[in-house]
């Protein structure tokens, strides 16, 4: 991420959400409130945001955008949308089971916590993200936030999130917690990833972590299966290159070493079968290589909050 600027990836996903929310084939996958809020994020974070949003109402512009996507990284926009749909459903299930704390790391311009804050007033929602991205988000949502939603700023790539969390009055280290790290771990080094996994393992009871991860390709590169050098160049130019990945067969042992049990791995193909009707699931290439992991904690003892001087 370039200093002082919101995450380029966060902005790209917000733009993709705006674009697909105008597409009759996909708009049912995007909550109407999410589309409206992402419009505001794009206007606030992108110099040409208003022109872009006007263009998304045009069928030819949407067709051109999808054509360009297929040349660069086929299916990435719908992939973002489907994984968010799965994560939201998973979070809702656990909240209904009694989990009372949701922590989102590197949420970017995601709207999940903002939308759920009013629906679940007894749940604490806490987001941690880079100050430049978080500043835009708070400015856009200012005046519409409930007391059970907290936005915290930090650079997750250089600081342990627990340092900031333990100074947040809304955070309870002993509450059953859902930790979400969507589209984050691949940008971090192995040490930072381990810190986040261990943070999840410190929570007790029915706590869980939901995160996405990249599986290295056969050549060892951390990348989508059908991405080319243009994608790598774009990420590096914006200071957001992929750094960490893990093979699916190695994930269970990795999590076990950190005190977590693997519950489920969800592949992109499963998301398309689950959420897309067959006519939309055509034979074109899709964005494969990025998976969702759901893991649960083993911990049953309480955590002591250190005294903050």
Sequence of secondary-structure elements: HHHHHEHEHEHEHEHHEHE
**SSE-based structural type:** alpha/beta
Q: List the strand order in the largest sheet.
A: 3-2-1-4-5-7-6
CATH class: Alpha Beta
Query: Helicity, in percent?
Result: 40-55%
Report the principal-axis shape: globular
Reported for the largest beta sheet, the result is: 7 strands, mixed
Tell me the number of helical segments per DSSP (H or I, 4 or more residues long). 12
Looking at the structure, the CATH topology is Rossmann fold
Quickly count the domains.
1
Give the overall pLDDT as a whole number. 88
Question: What value does the Rg take, in angstroms?
Answer: 19 Å
**CATH homologous superfamily title:** Vaccinia Virus protein VP39
Structure in words:
The protein is built from 12 helices and 7 strands. α5 packs across α12. The chain has 309 residues and is α/β, with parallel strands linked by helices. The two termini are 32 Å apart. The chain has a 7-stranded mixed β-sheet, with helices on both faces. Residues 305-309 have low confidence and may be disordered. The chain has helices spanning 8-21, 32-45, 49-55, 59-72, 76-96, 112-119, 131-141, 161-165, 190-201, 229-237, 248-257, 268-275; strands at 101-105, 124-129, 149-153, 177-181, 208-214, 260-266, 290-297. The chain has one domain (74-297): Rossmann fold. Helices cover 43% and strands 14% of the residues. α9 (190-201) links the parallel β4 (177-181) and β5.
């Amino acid at each position: 991420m370039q200093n002082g600027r919101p995450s380029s990836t966060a902005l790209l996903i917000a733009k993709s959400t705006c674009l697909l929310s105008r597409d009759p084939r996909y708009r049912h996958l995007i909550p109407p409130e999410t589309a409206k809020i992402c419009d505001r994020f794009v206007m606030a974070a992108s110099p040409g945001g208003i022109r872009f949003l006007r263009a998304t109402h045009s069928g030819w512009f949407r067709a051109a955008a999808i054509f360009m996507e297929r040349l660069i990284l086929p299916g990435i926009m719908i992939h973002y949308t489907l994984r968010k749909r799965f994560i939201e459903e998973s979070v809702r299930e656990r909240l209904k089971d009694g989990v009372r704390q949701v922590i989102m790391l590197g949420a970017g311009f995601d709207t999940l916590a903002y939308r759920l804050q009013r629906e679940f007033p007894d749940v604490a929602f806490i987001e941690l993200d880079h100050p430049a991205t978080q500043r835009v988000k708070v400015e856009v949502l200012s005046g519409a936030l409930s007391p059970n939603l907290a936005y915290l700023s930090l650079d997750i790539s250089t600081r342990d999130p627990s340092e900031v969390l333990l100074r947040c009055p809304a955070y309870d280290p002993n509450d059953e917690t859902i930790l979400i790290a969507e589209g984050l771990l691949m940008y971090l080094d192995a040490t930072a990833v381990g810190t986040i996994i261990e943070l999840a393992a410190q929570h007790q009871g029915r706590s869980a972590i939901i995160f996405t991860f990249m599986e290295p390709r056969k050549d060892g590169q951390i990348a989508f299966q059908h991405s080319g050098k243009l994608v790598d160049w774009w990420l590096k130019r914006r200071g957001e290159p992929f750094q960490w990945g893990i093979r699916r067969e190695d994930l269970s042992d990795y999590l076990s070493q950190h005190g977590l049990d693997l519950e489920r791995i969800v592949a992109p193909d499963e998301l398309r079968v689950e959420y897309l009707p067959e006519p939309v699931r055509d034979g074109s290439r899709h964005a494969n290589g990025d998976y969702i992991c759901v893991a649960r904690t083993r911990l049953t003892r309480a955590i002591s909050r250190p005294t903050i001087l």
